[in-house]
Fold this protein.
Amino acid sequence: MHLVDVLARDSFTASFEFFPPKNEASWDLFFSTIKDFGKLRPSFVSVTYGAGGSTRQFTHDLVVRIGKDTGLDAMPHLTCVNHSANDIDQILLRYAEAGVSNILALRGDLPNGTSTLASDYSYATDLVRAVRSFAQSGRHPDLRGFGIAVAGYPEGHPQTPNTLLQMDHLKAKCDAGADLIISQLFFDNHAFYDWRERCELAGIKTPILAGIMPITSVTGLKRMAELAGGTKFPAALLRAVRRAQDDADAVSRVGIHWATEQCRDLLDHGVRGIHFYTLNRSDATRKIYENLGVSSTDALRQ
Ligand SMILES: Cc1cc2nc3c(=O)[nH]c(=O)nc-3n(C[C@H](O)[C@H](O)[C@H](O)COP(=O)(O)OP(=O)(O)OC[C@H]3O[C@@H](n4cnc5c(N)ncnc54)[C@H](O)[C@@H]3O)c2cc1C
């Protein structure tokens, strides 16, 4: 379903982000887990796209299979680094032919050790324009073309320390045709609320989803700090994790509790939707729903 229709249908959206399992043996496990996610009745799910070459095809295959096997609406992420304009056109064509409705358009990061851009598009804005102009070619079954989501950074993107300039860049993505902004993960809701207000001040009217990732282990926390550069870890959260660090289950409980409180507060502040970075594990997301006292997203809309 086109993102515009999803947003019209759901006053609050919950979405779950997955990554393609690395090898085919893990696919069966993934498809048994996804049943648990399905019970939570998300508005849509999304599948990440690897910056390196090897797993890129898996994104397409997983998106198509999720649609076929589960009926969930799956949105592929697509990055433009290391892709020519023709590559992008061919990828979009395959998605259009498979009936995929939406794309999360990203620049992506260069794989480690790569120093030059072998890409026709420099920024996500260029990709958004390419996806929009694909619609004009009439090759998508929906005359509107793909629904388009883009990424936003409540605590800033590490490559552009000038936050005013960064807001201009986000606005440019929206003006180029984005239907939805999905935020980078954050642990301090005030940072999100302030950014949301700054988006409003900049004249951005595109709906914004809050990105939430529960910490489930100390290793996971360190990996998050690496992947989401610039994200701040509040001292209270670090203290709580440190107190629990000798007990893996306790660390996970602390992380899930923190994420639950974030979600409760976001709901109280009328957030348009929450995007859960699930790491393909349903337990943490399920527990957050449980802690919120609901069995599915339907109840979060009341
Ligand atoms: C929800 C979400 C999902 C993600 N999924 C993936 C994924 O599946 N695969 C993956 O590899 N990565 C993913 N990422 C990470 C993302 O690719 C990186 O953060 C990347 O560095 C930036 O991508 P972007 O689309 O935000 O880029 P852009 O919007 O292009 O911004 C990148 C940087 O360039 C600056 N900039 C933008 N336009 C201009 C301009 N015209 N002139 C000068 N500077 C400019 C911006 O301010 C920013 O600092 C995801 C991030 C988020 C938040």
The longest strand covers residues 13-18. The domain at 3-294+296-300 is CATH 3.20.20.220 (TIM Barrel). The mean pLDDT is 95. Residues 102 and 147 are 4 Å apart (CA to CA).
